[in-house]
Amino acid sequence: MKVRTRFAPSPTGLMHIGSVRTALYAYLTAKKSTGEFWLRIEDTDRKRLVEGSVEDIVSTLRWLGLNYDQLVTQSDRKDTYQKYARQLVDEGQAYEKDGAIWFKMDLGGKTVVTDLVGERVFTFENKNQKDFVVLKSDGYPTYHLAHVVDDHLDEMSPIIRAPEWISSLPKHVQLFEAFKWQIPQYAHLTMILGSDRSKLSKRHGAKGASEYSREGFLPEAILNYMALLGWTPKSGKEILSLDEMVAEFDLKDTHLSNAIFDTVKLEWMNGEYIRQMSDAELTKRLREFLIGHPSITLKIGSVVPLIKERIKKLTDFIPLTYFIFEEPEYDIEIFKKIKIEAQGAVLKTIVGKLESMEKPWKADNFEEIFRNLAKELNIPVREMFQLIRVAVSGQLVTPPLFETIELIGDRNVLQRIKFVITKYFSVV
């Protein structure tokens, strides 16, 4: 039987970051066996639908590169579910009550299921089960009926899903048996917890996956990090491409212990991916990300080599470099952090030194010139460099100082320093 898996979210809001792992594991399982990966939109709970959710799910999967082979929307199969619910009633397996159709649970014996994750054996006493609704009074099926029908008709196996469905296994097994259908293999993933080991929530930094895209995370880093939340590749590698994950992944190797979501670790991994990119690729990604800043995107290529080692997310680019492209904002309190007396006089001396330098300025010459000037003025070199940095950028932290000055250009640099002198320091 051909391996076919599905990712089956409900469109009740943004696709949660935790759902990325479920989708990824289903994708890896299918592609490792040259099988198919389907997207199923489970939209039968009509009261919980949120407009725009389907579009968010689809665009998020595309952004991540988890391309699905088929899209199924459950609401399109409403008549099919009604047909199978009616079949259960006709065969005495279900009954009507309060406008809904209820499935009759067999309370004898036990339900035993061997799960693919850790080959766990789940055993349930059927006497503890209760009848349940399979078709609601609005004519739409419950999850229990809909997914069983879909997984059979679409020949899905294994079924990779969240741990909250473990307790529903007796219901699902008995439904498959009532229809005389083959029961698929199940793989119930462990939970993803926050740093305090409670259920993952927004206070742990968890949010919609598309929000991570807007915050400057790379899809490769998101996939890599989420893959390792519950799985350790046998190669021991921590940085893996999607193709490498496909080659190494096996559901049997997934962890039995709950995973901990750590935003700091995710940011570190994102930074690793940025540093490993070629300058040309990072320039391309930044241009796509900063498409709303046309004056900046034209100059990104020359700045990328200066900042690649300093950013962890694409959103770090603007705060670190905006002063290169536009006039900076100044704050006298920042100048007060620099341990140099008579800063205005020192800045005037710096201007004189800059004006005497051969143009166009070259970054290679700056360090030696201003080291010597610091020595002449009996000023610590670090403080001299910081004074120049703040006068040019308004910031204490920037990309490499002298390479940045070269990019800004001699005219703009001199204008900025003279502006600072005039505004903050009474130097004649």
Automatic annotation (TrEMBL):
Residues 281-420 form the Aminoacyl-tRNA synthetase class I anticodon-binding domain. The gene is gltX. Its EC number is 6.1.1.17. Belongs to the class-I aminoacyl-tRNA synthetase family. Glutamate--tRNA ligase type 1 subfamily. InterPro entries: aa-tRNA-synth_I_cd-bd, aa-tRNA-synth_I_codon-bd_sub2, aa_tRNA-synth_I_cd-bd_sf, Glu-tRNA-ligase_bac/mito, Glu/Gln-tRNA-synth, Glu/Gln-tRNA-synth_Ib_cat-dom, GluQ/Sye, GluRS_core. Residues 2-97, 100-268 form the Glutamyl/glutaminyl-tRNA synthetase class Ib catalytic domain. It catalyses: tRNA(Glu) + L-glutamate + ATP = L-glutamyl-tRNA(Glu) + AMP + diphosphate. ATP binds at K202. Transmembrane segments: none annotated. GO terms for molecular function: ATP binding; glutamate-tRNA ligase activity; tRNA binding; zinc ion binding. A motif ('KMSKS' region) lies at residues 199-203. Pfam families: Anticodon_2, tRNA-synt_1c. Catalyzes the attachment of glutamate to tRNA(Glu) in a two-step reaction: glutamate is first activated by ATP to form Glu-AMP and then transferred to the acceptor end of tRNA(Glu). Monomer. It comes from the Bacteria. This is Glutamate--tRNA ligase. It is an enzyme of class 6 (ligase). A motif ('HIGH' region) lies at residues 9-19. Keywords: Aminoacyl-tRNA synthetase, ATP-binding, Cytoplasm, Ligase, Nucleotide-binding, Protein biosynthesis.
